[in-house]
Write a structure and sequence with these properties.
- By secondary structure, this protein is an alpha+beta fold.
- It contains 16 helices and 21 strands.
- The protein has two domains: 9-90, no CATH class; 102-490, Alpha/alpha barrel (Glycosyltransferase), CATH 1.50.10.10.
- The strands form nine sheets. The protein has a four-stranded antiparallel beta sheet with strand order 1-2-3-6, with no helix packed on it. Strands 16-17-18 form a three-stranded antiparallel beta sheet. The protein has a two-stranded antiparallel sheet with strand order 4-5.
- β14 and β15 (269-270) form a beta hairpin.
């Protein structure tokens, strides 16, 4: 943030434009409004950012107002404002504008989806960014960088259902480069892209997302290229890696606190520690082993994974006598994490328990904007995202997350054998009310989180990658049932036409 008089500028006034040179350098910022007149008037103004203040971030800024353009505009007249860091450009501003419009049209046409998806498709493109020689996904605007877990969860919705397979491939390759001791990074810092590895689930999501990519592309070449990384992940999870992540004697994955997606830490206190054996980690572990078994067969290598997956399944069902959120702690907190026992391609539990879990979450956690992170009956429930301390406490203790609607709807339709009438019911019951609130002028953005208590205020990032991604994915894959082209090569799902 700027202090008053923290920098200086020199302005060069030309016809219809001003050229701005910061701090007596030859760097230029050009602002041009066609058929206008510019008046220079430099004034420093102090700005307070209320949202940043609520987050206990630095919030006092000083902006330099440099002047103003005056232009007479006739009713319905089209005109262009040009902002550039190049003194001279060979491109006409009107042609640049038309190129951008054409890019958006091409993006929509490439998906081959109906017009009803257009807003979400265009919104999905906002999160895909360059990273080195490849691509990555920004977790949310305006505060987040790229996060391993968020990126991986977002891949199907942002890239696969939108037919941007090459982007998905670049993201997976880029992430594989950072795999260390079997761990995919949790987060990259903004300034230097240094990686932090404090995640127990990112690596398991990586294996699943390779599988989802293969169902769309059947890209055996990429599978062969990344196979050593997949093997490395499983080996480190079996025999142990950082953060006390290891396969215990009961074949389930044990881990330190604060390593799941519910990872808030306040000083030395974890608001949702979920240490040892979180339920979705066991679901992802089993799912990963089953995927590795199938991929071993595809590559013609020895299957070292199916027999282990059976041991995991038997052990889990022995321990999972109630709907625990954390198995070792016998934690019966009613949270949405057990939905992954149902939503993943390979489920640890039988159909009757899947049905019970979906019904329980539907009854106790479903809201118009997503799933609550904790039941309202729990004494730790906090349904409003308030000041800094309470905000962190509430983040995963009652606040609503839209991205969880994706796995929930997938699970609901799955237990109904993907029948058409239940797909229609799921849209009408779980998605349409939210979309109706967004209205006709909605731009496709979906907030990171929402209060779970009326008036259900939107909170956090104004648009979040996995919120947009999972709503788009579930609309395409689950509601419309537009399935991956090569899915039957890897698994078979029933469908009712």
């Amino acid at each position: 943030l700027n202090q008053k008089n923290s920098f200086s500028i020199k302005q060069e006034i030309l016809k219809n434009q001003t050229n701005i040179y910061p701090n007596n350098t030859d760097q230029i910022i050009k602002i041009k409004v066609e058929k206008s007149k510019y008046y220079q008037n430099e004034i420093w103004k102090e700005i307070h950012y209320q949202k940043d203040k609520e987050r206990k971030d630095s919030y006092i800024d000083n902006n330099l107002l440099i002047g103003n353009f005056e232009k007479r505009i006739k009713n319905g007249e089209e005109y262009f404002l040009e902002l550039s860091t190049e003194k001279k450009t060979n491109k006409n501003i009107k042609s640049v504008y038309k190129e951008e419009i054409n890019k958006k049209r091409e993006l929509i046409l490439k998906t081959s989806l109906s017009d009803s998806f257009n807003k979400l498709i265009l919104s999905s493109n906002n999160f895909i960014v360059k990273k080195g020689d490849g691509k990555s996904i920004i977790a949310g605007y305006h505060w987040f960088s790229d996060w391993g877990r968020d990126t991986l969860i977002s891949i199907p919705g942002l890239t696969l259902v939108t037919s941007r397979f090459n982007i998905a491939k670049q993201i997976l390759i880029e992430l594989s480069k950072y795999c260390k001791n079997g761990l995919i990074p949790n987060v990259f810092t903004d300034r230097n892209s240094e990686a932090s590895y404090n995640s127990v689930d990112a690596s398991l999501w990586f294996i699943d997302r390779i599988f989802q990519y293969l169902k769309y592309t059947n890209d055996q070449k990429l599978l062969l290229e990344l196979w050593p990384t997949l093997v490395e992940i499983i080996d480190y999870y079996r025999y142990g890696t950082h953060y006390n992540i290891f396969m215990d004697d009961d074949f389930l994955i044990s881990h330190d606190p604060g390593l799941t997606w519910m990872d808030v830490k306040i000083n030395d206190f974890y608001s949702t520690p979920r240490s040892r054996k979180a339920v979705e980690i066991q679901a992802l572990w089993y799912n990963a082993l089953r995927i590795m078994s199938i991929l071993s067969e595809k590559l013609g290598v020895k299957d070292e994974y199916f027999s282990l997956s059976e041991k995991v399944k038997n052990s889990f069902n022995l321990h999972y006598t109630k709907e625990y959120d954390v198995i070792d702690k016998k934690d019966l907190s009613l949270r949405p994490n057990k939905i992954f026992l149902v939503s993943l391609d390979f489920s640890l539990i039988e159909h009757g328990l899947q049905l019970k879990i979906v019904e329980n979450i539907d009854k106790n956690l479903h809201t118009i904007f997503g799933l609550q992170t904790l039941s309202i009956d729990d004494p730790e429930f906090k349904g409003i995202y308030l000041d800094n301390h309470n905000r962190d406490l509430s983040y995963h203790n009652g606040i609503v997350w839209p991205w969880l609607l994706g796995p929930f709807i997938k699970s609901f339709i799955k237990i109904k054998d993907n029948e058409k009438k239940w797909r229609k019911y799921a849209f009408k019951t779980y998605l349409k009310p939210m979309l109706d609130v967004f209205g006709d002028n909605w731009d496709g953005s979906i907030n990171e989180i929402y209060d779970s208590i009326p008036p259900y205020a939107p909170r956090g990032c104004i648009t979040q990658a996995w919120s947009v991604a999972e709503i788009l994915r579930t609309l395409v894959e689950d509601i419309e049932y537009i399935r991956p082209l090569y899915e039957k090569n890897y698994l078979f799902n029933k469908i009712s036409i």
